[in-house]
Amino acid sequence: MIDVSTILRGFKAELSAKFFYYLTTGIVIVFLTRQLAPDEYGRLFLVISVLSIGRLFSSVGLAKSTATYVSNYLDTDPSQIPHIVRKSFQYNLITISIVVTALFVSAGTIAHLLDDPTLEPLLLVGILYIVCATLYNYSRVVLQGFENIAQSSTVYASEGVGRLLFVVALVAVGYGTLGALVGYIMGFALSAGIGLTLLFLRTSRYPSADVMESGLPRDIISYSVPLTVTRGAWVLEQDIDIVIVGFFLNPATVGFYTIGKQVVRFCTGPASSIGFAVGPQYSESTVADDESGAARVYETMLVSGLLFYLPAIAGLIILTDPIVTTLFGPDYRGAVPILQVFAVGIGLLAVTEMTEDILDYLGKATARAKMKAATSIGNIVFTVLFLQLLGAVGAAFATVLMQFFYTGLCLYLVESEIALRQRYLLGKLGHIGAITAVMAGIVAGLSRYITGAVSLSVIIACGAVLWAALTIGSGLIDVRTVLDTFSNSGND
C-alpha cells in the first residue's frame, strides 16, 4: 500500500533541501552574472556542459541501479545490501578512472573543436569536477534507495551551500572563471564526503551475507544499461544543446542561453522534490497490492503540480524582461526571448520530474530509456536545424518541442500501469487554466507600472495573492485539509 505519510515526510525533507539548494544556486547565478561578462559566463558553463557529458560515462546509471536493488532487497534479504553497495562502488571507481583519463588526453582536442584554446586548462581542472560530482551523485541517489530521503536531501543541500561559499570566495578575490569552476568542484567535494560517510554508516547497519547472491553483480550492471541510456538522454537534453550553441555561435550567446536553462531548472525544483520522494513508494509489488490508491496519489500529485506551475509560467512569460534585467543586469537582456520560449516547457518538465522516478521504480526504466533516447536524438537534430534559422531562440524551441513529446509518452506509460481518471484530470486542467487566465490578465495590466525591483516584487506578490484567493475560493485547495495532512505527517 502507498504510504502517504512517508511520501509527505520525504517530500518535506527533499523540498527543504531543494529550497536551500536553489536559494544558494540562485545567489551564485546572480553573483556570477554581476561579476562575469556574458562571454566569460558562457565560457564557464560551456565547460561545465562538456564535463556533464563526461559525468554521464563516469556514472553509467550505476547509482540508480544500486538504489533500485537496495530498495528491493530491504524487505527480501537485507544481508545482500552491503555487497550491493560495495560492488557497485567499485564499479563506479573504475568508470571514473576511465573517463578522467580520456578527458586528460582529449582536453586540447575539445578546446580546438570549440575554437577556444582558453578552454583547455579549464577542462583539465575539470577532471576533479568529474570525480567529485560523480561520487556526490552516487551517494545521494543510493541513499534514496534506502528510502532515507532526509539524509539524501542533506547531501543535496550541502552541495549548494558549499558551492555558494567557495564560488563567491574565489571569484571575489579575483580568480574569475577558473575560481568559479574550482568553487563548483569544492562544493561537490564537500557534499561527496558527507554523502559517502552517511552511506557507508547506513550500510554498516546491515549484517553482511557470507557471499554475494549469484548473478547479482551482473543484474546491477544489466539494469544500469537502460538507466545509462535514460541518463544519457537527460544529459544530452540538458547539456548538448549548450555545446551546440557554443560550437555554432559565440560565448556571450551561450551565456544568454544558459541563463534560460538555469531559470527552468530553478523553477522545476519543487516538482523534482515530489518525484524524488514518491518514487520509492511505487515498487511493482506495492502498486500491485493497491493500484487504485497508487493512481489516486499520482492524480493528486499531478493536479497539485499543475495548479502551482501553470499560473507561475504565465507570470514568468509576462514579466521576463524586468525579471532578467533586475536580477542579472541589462547586459543579459539577450536572454529574454530565449527564456520566454523555455518558460513554455517548464510545465512539461515539471510533469516528467514528478513521473520519471515512479516509472523507474515500477521497473519501466528500459521503456523510458527508449523514449528518452528517441526524443533526445530528435532534440539534437532539431536544435541544429532551428539554430540555423532562429539562432539561440530556435535551439530553445527545439528543446521545448521534444519535451512535449517526451512528457506525453511518460504519461502514456503511467496510464498503462495505473488506470488514471482522464475525464477528472481534464476537468481539473480546465479549472486551473481558467484561474491562470484571470491571474495573467491582471498581472499583464499591472506590468506597465514596473519601474524597478520594488514595483516588480509588489506585482509578483499581487499575482501570488490573487492565485491563492482564486484557488482557495474555487475549492481547488482546501487549506484545512492541507494543514492537517502535513501536520499529521510530521507527527507519524
Automatic annotation (TrEMBL):
Membrane topology field: Multi-pass membrane protein
Compartments, record wording: Cell membrane
Keyword list, A-Z: Cell membrane, Membrane, Transmembrane, Transmembrane helix
Alphabetized InterPro entries for the sequence: Poly_Biosynth_Transport
Claim: Cell membrane is one of the keywords in the record: yes
Domain of life per record: Archaea
GO annotation, cellular component aspect: plasma membrane
Pfam families: Polysacc_synt_3 (PF13440)
Entry keyword Iron-sulfur: no
Transmembrane segments: 19-37, 43-63, 91-110, 122-143, 155-175, 306-328, 334-352, 426-444, 450-470
Name listed for the protein in its UniProt record: Flippase
